[in-house]
Specification:
By secondary structure, the chain is of the alpha+beta class. The chain is built from three helices and six strands; from the N terminus they run ααβββαβββ. The protein has a six-stranded mixed beta sheet. A hairpin with a 7-residue loop joins β4 (about 90) and β5.
């Protein structure tokens, strides 16, 4: 399982977060025009190998959550729930052979920006994640 899949699973398993923004409106990569607002996207910005053992690799990756909404207060509410769910948290996948463990995620930046035509707000949360994955996964 990829780090992105682990993050999606962690999002999906939080009733408070999915009540604000259902998991089907949280996508990896670019948003899709058919998604209802608000919606969120996840982008991996970089990955650096940190350590390799005989059976695991440890990486440091930078991820960006972008929350898109017509209403700034709504976007900020989702951002607060994302921060509560992911900042300074650890989580693992189901323990299968292709598992990915997020050892620690840490919030590194927060930005609010309104689109030039004043129609949409974007709230961005940047995270650094230390992950461990089985070799070959």
């Amino acid at each position: 399982m990829s780090s992105e899949a682990a993050i999606h699973a962690h999002w999906t398993n939080d009733p408070a977060l999915t009540a604000l923004l259902p998991a089907e409106r949280f996508v990896t990569g670019l948003g899709q025009s058919e998604l209802a607002m608000p919606y969120a996207t996840l982008t991996r910005e970089s990955t650096r190998p940190k350590l390799r053992t005989s059976d695991r690799t440890i990486d440091e990756s930078e991820f960006r959550f972008d929350i898109w909404s017509i209403n700034l207060d709504e976007a900020k509410q989702v951002a607060a729930a994302v921060s509560a769910r992911f900042d300074r948290r650890s989580f693992a996948t189901d323990g299968s052979t292709d598992d990915c463990t997020v050892i620690r995620m840490r919030l590194t930046r927060y930005e609010e920006q309104q689109e030039p035509d004043n129609s949409i707000w974007r709230v961005t949360l940047g995270f650094v994640a230390i992950t461990a994955r089985a070799i070959g996964a």
